[in-house]
Structures are given as C-alpha cells and as structure tokens.
Amino acid sequence: MAKTTNSIPQACQQIEVSDGCDGTWHDISGQVNIYELPEEVVATGSVPVMKSDTHVLGTGPKEPITAVFTIVYTEAVGEAMELAWDTWNTEGCNKLFCVRVTPGGGNVGDKQWYVGENNTTDPAYLAAMTPPNGDASEGTPTIATFSVFGNYTRDTQTS
Predict the structure, then answer these.
(1) How far apart are alpha carbons 136 and 19 in whole angstroms?
(2) Alpha helix stretches (DSSP H) within the chain
(3) Given 3-state DSSP classes, what are the helix, strand and coil percentages for the chain, each rounded to the nearest 5?
(4) Which pLDDT band holds residue 114 (cuts at 50, 70, 90)?
(5) How far, CA to CA in Å, does 145 sit from each of 33, 63, 79, 121?
(6) Is 84 helix (H, G, I), strand (E, B) or coil?
(7) Which of 35-39, 48-52, 91-95 has the lowest mean pLDDT?
(8) Helices (H) and strands (E) in the chain, counts
(9) Is 1 helix (H, G, I), strand (E, B) or coil?
(10) Could you tell me how far CA 53 lies from the centroid of its own chain?
(11) Whole-model pTM above 0.85?
C-alpha cells in the first residue's frame, strides 16, 4: 500500500463550543492549547454456557467519554474560559456544553467530531473545571482546563 500524502497538521484544527448545546457555535481555536478525545468503547459482556469451551458474546451501547481541553486563560467575554466558566456557574444540574472539533480546519467537506451535538437528542455536559495555576518562574501564558462528558458523533461540514 502506498504511503498517504493526505495528512492533516494538528495545529490547523478548528475547535468550537456551544454553551447550552443550542446550536450556536463559538470558535475557540485560538485559545485551545491541547485537547484529548479519548477512546470510545462499546459495552461488552460474555456468559459461559453448558457443554461449550467458549462464551456467548454480546455488545451494548457505546459508553460516554470525557474529553479534556487545555486552554489559554483569558478574561475576555466570548472566549473559551468565560464560556466554560459561565456554564460551570449555572445553578442546578443542567450544565449543557457541547464541543466540535474539525481536524481539517473548518472548510466545507471537512469531517467534524462532536462531543454532544444538541440539547435534546444528544447533549453533553461540562463535567470538570480547573482554574488557572501560577508559577513565578515561568513566562508562558497561564492555562486552565475544562472537561466535557458525552458521546461522539461525526458529520461533514456543509457551510
């Protein structure tokens, strides 16, 4: 098989969030330093049966994942930290927060990976926040993290 010539640079990806999972997407690409979309697995199981040396196998639904985003800490309205913090401070248990990642950069036809897509059929939730830390010996920008809990979906960007 021939070696691919279609690789996608990691630094050119587009990352967006939808606070409230309401379909309004905010581009936070310029504030994301690192993100990790973990392996999604299917629930599996097995049961031994009589007169057999193998199990009967079964599968179930896909288990949700927790995606972690490391961001540059800012205090600007509409940027990643403020969007996440506003959701985190929402009273009650409904901390809807969806994320979509477009590895190709956000062009028409690029594949998009969602953690949660909307607030009715496929929500995701802000699951954790880590405020910024400091180190007086460092000159690098301050960072913070947030985590989103939900299931993956994949689609093609159309606009």
Answers:
(1) 33
(2) 80-88
(3) 10, 40, 50
(4) very high
(5) 10, 23, 13, 26
(6) helix
(7) 91-95
(8) 1, 11
(9) coil
(10) 41
(11) yes
pLDDT per residue over 71-107, tens digit each? 999 999 999 999 999 999 999 888 999 999 999 998 8
**Sign for the pseudo-dihedral over CA of 103, 147, 29, 106:** positive
The tokens for 41 are 């697995």
The DSSP code for 44 is E
**What is the spatial distance between Cα 89 and Cα 129, in angstroms, rounded to a whole number?**
10
Paired tokens of 55: 């199990």
Single out the residue of 31, 124, 123 nearest to residue 78, CA to CA. 31
The structure tokens listed for 8 are 């996608």
Q: Tokens at residue 14, please?
A: 């587009």
Residue 96 Cα to chain centre, angstroms: 13
Q: What tokens does 4 get?
A: 């691919």
Cβ atoms 108, 99 nearer than 8 A: no
Residues 6+ apart with CB under 8 A from 95: 87, 88, 125, 126, 127
What gap in Å lies between CA 56 and CA 87, rounded to an integer?
A: 44
Instruction: Provide the pLDDT confidence category of residue 159 given band limits of 50, 70 and 90.
Output: low
**7 burial via Cβ count (<10 Å: 0-12, 13-18, 19+):** exposed
